[in-house]
Design brief:
By secondary structure, this protein is of the alpha/beta class. It has 3 domains: about 80 residues, Multidrug-efflux Transporter Regulator, Chain: A, Domain 2 (Orthogonal Bundle), CATH 1.10.1660.10; about 80 residues, Methionine synthase domain (Methyltransferase, Methionine Synthase (B12-binding Domains), Chain A, domain 1); about 120 residues, Rossmann fold, CATH 3.40.50.280. Helices cover about 50% and strands about 10% of the residues. The chain contains 14 helices and 7 strands. Strands 4-3-5-6-7 form a 5-stranded parallel sheet, with helices on both faces. Helix 6 packs antiparallel against helix 7, helix 10 crosses helix 14 and helix 11 packs across helix 12. The longest helix has 21 residues. It is globular, with a radius of gyration of 21 Å. The N and C termini lie far apart (about 50 Å). About 35% of the residues are buried. It binds cobalamin (B12). The site of cobalamin has 34 residues, from helix 8, helix 9, helix 10 and helix 14.
């Protein structure tokens, strides 16, 4: 079977950008070309991409991973595959996925609200919301879940996160000012929204700019509010590159004094040498705590979780 670069990215879960970069830098994979010059991958190429991704994820440098992936021919997926394999989704996430597949918005929303009502924001985000989005993304990459299903889920997740962010409380005068936004080109902002929600537990003056913030605008916003810190989020590889440009530019200024960078797009091994920003831990609750600790923010306790008035009481019994 033959695959375009888009189809290869979907099938392997490795971004198009990353696949092309490997080819440019390491000559791997080496797809055939159509008469018009378009890349055409076969099943072996896909296998090489998957193996290479796993080797890199297990800490092997990309050039070595490229050599290993091709020289071993029809290489079996490494034993590390088992340990690095994603654990099966938890029962609650499975239940949510059923609602997603059935486009059952009411059930999905009720179950998600229940997760927030029955546990802390941290637990609901780390244990339910992010794993759900992750599973939806994996299903999409395997072509089992359609784009409509993904948009449907994202919209409901967004609504719930935003409704909880609305429970904001006043901030003390003199509290550290933190500007939060996604790098230019980055439209995945649900991780940023989740981080925003968790940062509300700390006495921080949050200025949230949302998705796709151009470099100059981020700098201007930081100056306008005399920010103590900026936090940049990137999910895709392209946004990571632009994020570093912004981080470097901010780091050259006297203020903000802290520039945090985070998100799934960061390859911590490759980027740890880049000194323009403080790299946040991968878990969103850990990232919120790391930011608060760096800024010396006062903890003011979690926001009380109240059942949403639009849900019948028995939903929470
Ligand atoms: C929802 C979604 C969308 C929505 C976004 C809606 C929104 N407002 O956010 C829309 C439809 C816009 C979208 C578009 C695209 N998407 Co999309 N999307 C997703 C999906 C399903 C969830 C995104 C998300 O919220 N991730 C957050 C969590 C779930 O990701 P995670 O890796 O588990 O994150 C962990 C940590 O990294 C951490 N974390 C997450 N966010 C943050 C933030 C901070 C600050 C910190 C510290 C930690 C942190 O928390 C998690 C648990 O620890 C993912 C699937 C996935 N696996 O992420 C794909 C995914 C991110 N998308 C992908 C792609 C390819 C695209 C498109 C290019 C598709 C296309 N062809 O148009 C565009 C690009 C848009 C752009 N320029 O930004 C790929 C990215 C591959 C890559 N690495 O580059 C993914 C991974 C799907 C896949 N499996 O291939 N997408």
């Amino acid at each position: 079977m033959q695959y375009t670069v888009q189809a290869a990215a979907r099938a392997t879960g490795v971004s198009e950008h990353r696949i092309r970069t490997w080819e440019r830098r390491h000559g791997v994979p080496a797809p055939a070309r159509s008469p018009k010059g378009r890349r055409l991958y076969n099943d072996d190429d896909l296998r090489v991409i998957r193996v290479m991704a796993r080797l890199i994820d297990s800490g092997i440098p990309a050039d070595e991973a490229a050599r290993a992936a091709v020289s071993s021919g029809r290489i079996e997926l490494p034993a590390a595959d088992e340990s690095s394999a994603q654990p099966a989704a938890s029962p609650i996430v499975e239940t949510l996925l059923d609602a997603v597949r059935a486009f059952d918005g009411q059930r999905l929303e009720q179950q998600l609200r229940r997760a927030f009502a029955e546990s802390s924001n941290e637990e609901a985000i780390d244990g339910v919301v992010m794993p759900l989005l992750h599973e939806v993304g994996e299903g999409w990459a395997r072509a089992e879940i359609g784009v409509a299903c993904e948009h449907f889920t994202s919209e409901i997740v967004r609504r719930i996160l935003v409704s909880r962010v609305d429970e904001r409380r006043p901030v003390s005068p003199g509290a550290p000012v933190l500007v939060l936004g996604c790098a230019v080109g980055e439209h995945h902002d649900l991780g940023m929204l989740a981080l925003w929600l968790l940062l509300l537990d700390w006495d921080l003056n949050l200025v949230v700019l949302g998705a796709d913030v151009p470099e100059a605008e981020m700098v201007a916003a930081c100056k306008a509010v005399d920010a103590d810190a900026a936090c940049l989020v990137a999910t895709t590889a392209t946004a990571v590159s632009s994020m570093w440009l912004i981080a470097r530019r901010l780091a050259r200024l006297q203020r903000p004094r802290h520039v945090f960078v985070g998100g799934p797009g960061l390859d911590r091994q490759t980027e740890s040498g880049i000194r323009a920003g403080e790299i946040l831990p991968p878990s969103i609750p850990d990232a919120a705590r790391a930011i608060a600790a760096s800024l010396g923010a006062r903890y003011r306790g979690i926001i009380e979780t109240t059942p949403s008035p639009d849900l019948p009481a028995h939903e929470f019994e």
